[in-house]
Design a protein that fits this description.
The protein is an alpha+beta fold. It has four helices and 15 strands. It has one domain: Creatine Amidinohydrolase, CATH 3.90.230. Strands 8-7-9-14-15 form a five-stranded antiparallel beta sheet, sandwiched between helices. Strands 1, 2, 4 and 5 form a four-stranded antiparallel beta sheet that branches.
Length: 265
């Protein structure tokens, strides 16, 4: 077995542009979903929007049918919709959004053989001060990472800046779930933590051609998480039931820094 760094698949300029097209579709879906996030909307209605747009584009939903060793059944939806204390992997359904909620929506597609993946957290109506601050800081952590990406940097140096920014605001960085490489497959090497791992474990150097899904997950309280329901073991929530936010962009490492592939450009 080689190191994780030795298994990273670098992408050609052509492949990066194909990934940008997939990322552009995901961006459009998240924008449309964001326009429909309002009190009374169900999370199933948000998933229906994504499903229609994915089908119309001739793409497939990355998440639908995914399995993991702990879950009781394959993931049944095109998006993950995680409300309030739910961190990631929330299953859309009959739940109606209420004013003051926040909902994190993660969307992934495969288009022409390549993956696109992005996430945003939306406020439902007027958010509380704590919820708005949480969303702002989480988004800022992602922006720090994008700004700091460039060849020859160690990922740990970037992750440390993300972690310091979040923890300086007395918020928590989730450890159990991290970002990942992406390309022809949704999850490729390397793992992309949002915190500096002790001893530099899993660290790697950024080189042009890497394509990364960077996705900070931040909590108002403790960063520790549990499964929301032992009957399905998909939805992950904060152990102390404090609010959580999730933002994600897919980026390519270039000679000049980061090229964001999922911002609609």
């Amino acid at each position: 077995m080689g190191s994780a760094a030795s298994r990273i698949v670098l992408k050609s300029p052509r492949e990066i542009e194909l990934m940008r097209a997939a990322g552009r579709l995901v961006h459009a879906i998240l924008c449309e979903i964001g326009a429909h996030v309002r009190p009374g909307t169900t999370t199933q209605e948000l998933d229906d929007i994504a499903d229609r747009m994915i089908r119309a584009a001739g793409a497939t939903a990355l998440f639908k049918g995914v399995t993991n060793p702990q879950a009781r059944f394959p993931f049944p939806a095109s998006i993950c919709s995680s409300v309030n204390e739910e961190v990631v992997h929330g299953i859309p359904g009959a739940r109606r959004l209420e004013s003051g909620d926040i909902v994190s929506v993660d969307c992934g597609v495969r288009l022409n053989g390549y993956c696109g993946d992005s996430a945003s957290t939306f406020a439902v109506g007027r958010p509380s001060h704590a919820a708005q601050r949480l969303m702002d800081v989480t988004r800022e952590a992602l922006e720090i990472a994008i700004r700091e990406v460039r060849p020859k940097r160690r990922w740990s140096a970037i992750a440390r800046q993300m972690q310091r920014h979040v923890e300086a605001q007395k918020l928590g960085v989730v450890r159990e779930f991290v970002g990942h490489g992406i390309g022809r497959e949704m999850h490729e090497e390397p793992k992309i933590p949002n915190y500096a791992e002790r001893g530099g474990r899993g660290d790697f150097e950024l080189v042009p051609g890497m394509t990364l899904a960077i996705e900070p997950m931040v909590t108002v309280g403790s960063p520790e998480v549990d499964y929301a329901d032992d009957r399905d073991r998909w939805t992950v929530m904060t152990r102390d039931r404090s609010l959580a936010a999730h933002f994600e962009h897919m980026v390519a490492v270039t000679e000049d820094g980061a090229s964001v592939l999922s911002n609609g450009s």
